Amino acid sequence: MLNSPLSPSSTELVISILDMVLSEGKPLDRAYSVHFSGLQLIPSEQARITKVVGDILRRLNLYCFLSDVKPEEISRLGSRLMNAWHLFHELELPKLQYSLPLAEAEYFARLEEAKLQPALWDGCPEWLDTMGQAQLGDAWAKERAALNAQPKRFIRTNILKCTREELAKKLRNEQVQTVEVDGVDTALEVVSDSALFRTESFKKGWFEQQDAGSQLVAAAVDAKPGMRVIDACAGAGGKTLSIAAQMKGKGRLLAMDVEQWKLDNLKQRARRANASNVETRIIASSKTIKRLKLSADRLLLDVPCSGLGVLKRNPDAKWRDTPDRLPVLVELQKHILQSYSRMVKVGGILIYATCSIMPEENRDQVDAFLAENEHFTFLEDETISVADSGFDGFYMARLERIAE
Ligand SMILES: C[S@@+](CC[C@H](N)C(=O)[O-])C[C@H]1O[C@@H](n2cnc3c(N)ncnc32)[C@H](O)[C@@H]1O
Description:
InterPro entries: MeTrfase_RsmB-F_NOP2_cat (IPR049560), MeTrfase_RsmB-F_NOP2_dom (IPR001678), RCMT (IPR023267), RsmB-like_ferredoxin (IPR054728), SAM-dependent_MTases_sf (IPR029063). The protein is of the alpha/beta class. The protein is 45% helix and 16% strand. The protein has three domains: 8-116, no CATH class; 153-209, Alpha-Beta Plaits (2-Layer Sandwich); 212-401, Rossmann fold (3-Layer(aba) Sandwich), CATH 3.40.50. The protein has helices spanning 8-22, 28-36, 43-58, 60-67, 74-88, 104-115, 118-121, 126-136, 140-146, 164-173, 200-203, 212-221, 238-246, 260-273, 286-290, 317-320, 325-340, 363-372, 386-389; strands at 153-157, 178-180, 187-190, 207-209, 228-231, 252-257, 278-282, 296-302, 344-354, 376-384, 394-401. Helix 1 (8-22) runs antiparallel to helix 2 (28-36), helix 4 crosses helix 5 and helix 12 packs across helix 13 (238-246). S-adenosylmethionine is lined by residues 214, 232-236, 238-239, 257-259, 262, 283, 302, 304, 336, 355.
């Protein structure tokens, strides 16, 4: 993961960020912005810190076990956890001002014990391991292991402004190294630790940060210029902007959500991207949906989900979530699918998507919907496996409305 130890000050920063997430329950993004704003860290050191924090959160239970520290004890015993982390990665221990000793013999005894517990080794909480086993059976172990890998950084070329080759070249001139991603036309993987959002290419709207799997989901919408497309759970518009580019700015693209602040954010991003055919609309009540009855050539339902396919990118969620959330989400997904599908016109396509790899949120939902809605027919579906793709995990299904 790293080939040299963290400096004492970076180690202290890691402990403080972890403490904010684990003791105060703050989201990881917020903890980063609190800690990094005002500090003049060089981009590579900031990248090292985020890599270490990410790695620790992906296998928090393992590092806690090895150091015999509880997550809520990080502010007091964080240095012992950091020592265990350095030992695990075979790095020299940082010379901290206040360091609580870690008995190395005990560490190595615990290491041997941990190797015999695959879920602990993979940084998986017990409830998630039970759920994954129940839903995916034998396929779970490789997904569980893949979910603790460091996520790759992907960007999507904004083809409204440039080609992928032009973007790669421009970024190279800005000291950002990228490689093309096979099978995803618009995607580049960023392989250098560069401050992407400070580049001129970003400011000019030539790219957006977006996982390659998410780009594949957006591509499955297959929107054409001139169509009428609705992205009904658009959030801040990761996929909306991709769809706008497919439409080459022609036709109508309606981005909807129940949260206005996300749509406001989307509008800003659309302006930078030159996505001129995007319109936003808040879903205030069921009337908003009814008014759009039988109107869409394409409807993307990127529904709220457990997010279990994107845990390597959002590892703090593993330690905040509980299994009780899933049934609530499954009900909401069912409701959205049933009620929002009214917006698809005859001959139009509904794309149901999640960033989960659990069948209960995916194919099971689609099957239950089709059993009750004969005016839709199944075309195809795909689960993007975290283990097989190296991307985040997603599901997408394409259904066609064949009658009113
Ligand atoms: C998976 S996220 C969407 C991510 C987004 N499509 C993207 O690519 O960046 C799901 C979104 O659904 C929204 N949402 C939650 N309940 C909803 C509802 N009843 N109707 C529409 N959207 C809803 C959430 O606010 C959230 O933005």
